[in-house]
Amino acid sequence: MQALFGHEQALELDHISIVDATQCHGMLFIATQKLDEADQMLGPVVAGYDEALRSDHISIVDATQCHGMLFSARGKLDEAEQMLGSVLAWYDKALRSDHISIADATQCHGMLFSTRQKLNGAEQILMQALFGHEQALDLDHISIVDAAQTLGILLRDQGKLNEAERMFRWALAGYGKALGTDNFSTLDTAHCLGILFSDQGKPDEAEQMIRWALSRYDKTLGPNHIATLDAAQCLGIVLRARGKPDEAEQMFRWALVGYEKALWPDQL
Questions:
Q1: Which Pfam family, any one of them, does this sequence belong to (predicted)?
Q2: How far apart are CA 111 and CA 105, in angstroms?
Q3: Overall pTM surpassing 0.70 (yes/no)
Q4: 180-268: which CATH topology?
Q5: Which residues contact 72 (CB under 8 A, 6 or more apart)?
Q6: Using CA atoms, how far apart are residues 107 and 222, in angstroms rounded to an integer?
């Protein structure tokens, strides 16, 4: 916000640097689920680029992709698919096949297909995105790790548990190296992997992985954060299945009390 204000003080409001800063701010709002604020930011971006640049300039296409991601986040899936499809077609025509923007746009398109339950198409697209990232980046680059995590979730939802495990293990190692063991993406992947182990009938590995995720959630986010409570509930389910009812009860009570505080504070 400080950078955007500084640009506004120094430049005309339609200067390209202000438009760039506005787009970055809009993307941050999408990432933090502040969708109304994102809409307010991204709305003027395309208009600003249209005034300053050619209609086929890559910045306009990038802004269109951002808008497509916003539509997807708001549940406007038809509009999102139309925008993201046009972006991918433009990138394919204008850029080298191994350009990172093509891989990023392909991944966005695959995630949208997954949201729309077009699972076979989503898997194919996400595989393509992962391959594209591998061509353009180092294997431990965060974009590749994100693609592996996304593909793992899709494979799990399709019941392809062994393939999903490989993707989650890849993502867990990559996030741990790039972001640290206490980063939310690392912990979220560990939690996903623990649930997958349970689905695979690997109770020892499931308990170990979910316990680890729970301890780190508790440390970094606090005992009453929704992610911590979800992990506590999952661990309770695993412990109950393993014949550890007393420990399971402790986890369920932790989750129940926390959910009540988080979701119905006015009723306490």
A1: TPR_10
A2: 10
A3: no
A4: 1.25.40
A5: 80, 84, 108, 111, 112, 115
A6: 32
Q: In this structure, what DSSP letter does residue 11 have?
A: S
Each domain of the chain, given as residue ranges in start order, spans 180-268
On average, the pLDDT of the chain sits at 74
Strands (E), the chain: none
Structure tokens at 203: 């109770």
What pLDDT digit, counting tens, does each position of 26-36 carry? 555 555 556 56
Which residue, chain included where needed, has tokens 């594209």?
132
Which tokens sit at 69?
Answer: 């991601």
Q: Please return the burial class of 234, using the count of CB atoms within 10 Å of its CB with bins 0-12, 13-18 and 19+.
A: buried
Q: What's the residue count for the chain?
A: 268
pLDDT > 80? residue 200: yes
Q: Note the pLDDT tens digit of each residue in 73-105.
A: 677 767 776 776 677 676 666 656 556 665 666
Give me the pLDDT at residue 209, please. Answer: 98
SS3 percent helix, strand, coil of the chain, rounded to 5, is 80, 0, 20
Q: How far is 62 from 22, CA to CA, in rounded Å? A: 13
Cα of first residue to Cα of last residue in the chain, in angstroms, is 37
Task: Kindly indicate the confidence band of residue 14, based on its pLDDT and cuts at 50, 70 and 90.
Answer: very low
DSSP 180: -
3-state secondary structure of 181: coil
Q: What are the tokens at 204? A: 């020892």
- The DSSP code for 138 is -
Between CA 118 and CA 166 the distance in angstroms is 22
pLDDT at 188: 94
